Amino acid sequence: MSAGMKRVSVSDLQRMRDKNQRITMITAYDYPSAKLADEAGVPVILVGDSLGMVVLGYESTVPVTVEDMIHHGSAVVRGSERAHVVVDMPFGSYQAGWKDALRNAARIMQETGCSSVKLEGGQRSAGIVKRLVEAGIPVMGHVGLTPQSVNAMGGYKIQGRTPRDAVRILNDAKALEEAGAYSIVLEVVPAIVAWRITERLSVPTIGIGAGPYCSGQVQVFHDMLGLDPDMDPRHARRFIEGGELVRNAITEYREAVEDGSFPTPAESFFLDAARRQHIEATLARHAREAALPPVRAEASDGGQTPDSAHEGVDAEVAMLEEDEVV
Ligand code: KIV
How far is the CA of 236 from the centre of ligand 1 (A)? Predict the structure, then answer.
């Protein structure tokens, strides 16, 4: 982080909620996506365990490990300067008890340099949240659809559709707030349920598929950029058809390689004639000594030799004076 640059803190987020300023959160899993999100002014970046599905290609978030989260989390911290970076505690890293949870949360905080951790589950996780908070680790909670429990829930289904289930989720959120969670994600619950929970909590709620009445919203980076055409959840808005743009660009690149229009002289490194001849002579001598075929073999594109490839280049292209490439 550059000197003097302060990251968004949990108190900043609480202030935003108290002033009715909506909070934007986005997931990021690597250095460039974190840099883009940070430059766009997003106050909270979540290194979600959704990375298991989005970037590692697993069927669910269940196989994601603490090591995965540390690997991606530290890249995101390096890529951002201002955002509050929350790292998910993956499946199995906190359910066995508070000691295990504390050890893993401390590792994630120390080894990534992140600002806080997030874990799933309401009343069942509240005791663990309390211990982590007492140990000085800020914790974001996560209720409603909790993807780590996909096997128990029987799929990715909307939660809180019956009065009993809505009350259960409200009690989950309340339990997390009482345990000291600084914010709570509400995932895929009816808007009315998210609204009433948001009204009854004093900490910010961050919704995904939870309607417009939360204190903030979170979106998965690849969903909102349309990077994966096979991922199109109802609650995600594609702000750009990124997959199509990127695929078209890669196709153009392949075509340019195949038709020889990439790279141009301006995208290559040339030497002045004296240095070139010196290198040519050295390579020729080396080939003779090693009994290799001559370097100046005919090129396959109709006889273009290294010399003819240089014709006109010296005049057009600034010669390489420095070793710097970028
Ligand atoms: O892992 C994740 O990306 C999440 C968000 C969907 C909230 O937990």
Answer: 12
